[in-house]
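Lay summary. Proteins are chains of building blocks that fold into shapes, and those shapes determine what they do. In this project we predict the shape from the chain. Here is one chain we studied, written as its sequence of building blocks.
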Amino acid sequence: MDIEKLEVWKSAMDLAETVYKITDKFPKTEIFGITDQIRRAAVSIPSNIVEGKGRDSAKDFVRFLNIAKGSLYELQTQCILSNKIGYLSQEDFRLIIKMCETLEHRLSALIKYLKHAN
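And here is the predicted shape, written in a compact code that computers can read:
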């Protein structure tokens, strides 16, 4: 698959995988609460990247990359809350936030590149 060559997509997939592993430690009573919300946001990021890549124009790709960024911000907010209420350890919190920051930079760089390439 061509998308597998995109570093931004690979980073998003790594983040989603990490989120799934870490949220497996959350209380089972939260499986339909914050755990589900965090996982949906994490999966939405690479999903929107690949959907945008599959579109016919750079403009559409940029639109989906921006949606992915929105999901990334949603994920960060949910992780902050999870950390505050004690579901997410400081170590896991720092790991996810670091991965989010790296991904945010990659998304922003790709968006900037695509906007100026046209």
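What the prediction tells us: The chain has a mean pLDDT of 95.
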